[in-house]
Write a structure and sequence with these properties.
346 residues; binds zinc ion; 26% strand; Quinone Oxidoreductase, Chain A, domain 1; alpha/beta; Rossmann fold; globular; binds nicotinamide-adenine-dinucleotide; seven-stranded mixed sheet
Length: 346
């Protein structure tokens, strides 16, 4: 089958690889119809994630049709149209029974290498989906592939961000980063009742998008986000700040924007072992800091309902739809910030 494989930093290729087969009774194999490039794939692309062997199929956002079904799968049958989470969850372990799917004892992340279960990714014609009953959701006929492909990662993550950020009606929220995750988090923050969302980035097209959805855009190269947030809040700082970048600079800025007693939700992926963090400021403000990989399984149904009933449309982020063969070009454009969301069709 055709698939995109990683070889070295900024070297990804489309070629032939062996197709997946059922390995476990709880697996299904799906034929991918739509997949996408996530900001977390960019970390791999840029060589920041350890444990990716050359030749690994990457990608973890997907919609497809069930082709083969393991004998232990109860919820799905051949021909079902499905989407799924960026990582698997067994549904049965101590963590899954408490809906803490992120910490599932049997979890693997699609296309994320040795340290996340060596599971092949979804930027391919077919993918093996372990623990299909918990990992997948059924796509309602009214929801397009281009909407459903966001549910199990980017949009689910946006809900997770608003949730761990404890966004309350009337809050002033700041979101550092206006990539797909940041922009969807801004949309979700409004659905949670945020009074105003400040959107921070430096890419003009992304800031313009944020402005169109009702945010106050702040270009960090031209304006001090702290001054903007202080103006809005009588000098207090934002009630909730969501970091949606994944760099030390962005995390430091996010910490500065939080009001005393406020909440900092860190959604960006960090691969470094350690780096400096403004702990004194965080301590003196007594802020709550939450972070981690998103517990997306817990939000997939809510995310689907919001799309189904027209409350938000993640497909509005799509700037490029390319055939899988042109995925390397999609990576190039996304890496440079010239594409906002790249969708790949098989
Ligand atoms: P992206 O790379 O498209 O977005 C990052 C944005 O941050 C870009 O628009 C960039 O211009 C902006 N940026 C860079 N430095 C900045 C700074 N100092 N201040 C403000 N903005 C800055 O990626 P994305 O798809 O939107 O994902 C965002 C982050 O979320 C990534 O780190 C990704 O790995 C992570 N992520 C985490 C989870 C999770 O489970 N926690 C899930 C999905 C994505
Ligand atoms: Zn992702
Ligand atoms: Zn589990």
């Amino acid at each position: 089958m055709k698939a995109l494989t990683w070889h070295a930093p900024r070297d990804v290729r489309v070629g032939e690889v062996d197709p997946p087969h059922l390995v476990d009774p709880l697996d299904v194999v799906i034929r991918i119809t739509t997949t996408a490039i996530c900001g977390s794939d960019l970390h791999i692309y840029r060589g920041r994630i350890p444990g990716i062997l050359p030749g690994t199929v990457i990608g973890h956002e997907y919609v497809g049709v069930v082709e083969e079904v393991g004998p232990g799968v109860r919820r799905f049958k051949k021909g079902d149209r499905v989407g799924g989470a960026f990582r698997t969850a067994c549904g049965a372990c101590w963590y899954c029974r408490r809906r803490l799917y992120t910490h599932c004892e049997n979890s693997m992340i699609f296309g994320y290498g040795l340290f996340f279960g060596s599971l092949q990714g979804t930027q391919a014609e077919y993918a093996r989906i372990p623990f299909a009953d918990t990992t997948l959701f059924r796509v309602p006929p009214e929801v397009t592939d281009e909407q459903a492909v966001f549910v199990g990662d980017t949009l689910g993550t946006a809900f997770f961000a608003a949730e761990i950020g404890e966004v309350q009606p009337g809050d002033i929220v700041a979101v550092v980063g206006c990539g797909p995750v940041g922009l969807l988090t801004q949309m979700v923050a409004y659905t949670y009742g945020a009074a105003k969302v400040v959107a921070v980035d430096r890419i003009p097209t992304r800031l313009a998008f944020a402005e169109r959805i009702g945010c106050i855009p702040v270009n960090i190269d031209r304006e001090d986000p702290l001054a903007v947030v202080n103006r809005l809040t009588g000098g207090r700082g934002a009630d909730v700040v969501i970091e949606a970048v994944g760099t030390e600079v962005a995390l430091t800025l996010a910490t500065r924007l939080v009001r005393p007693g406020g909440v900092l939700a860190v959604i960006g992926v960090f691969a470094e072992e350690t780096f400096p963090f403004p702990i004194r400021e965080a301590f003196l403000k007594g802020m709550t800091v939450r972070h981690g990989l998103a517990n997306v399984h817990a939000y997939m149904e809510e995310a689907l309902a919001m799309i189904l009933h027209g409350r938000l449309d993640p497909s509005s982020l799509i700037t490029h739809t390319l055939p899988l063969e042109e995925a390397p070009q999609g990576y190039l454009l996304f890496d440079r910030g010239e594409a906002l969301k790249v969708i790949l069709k098989t």
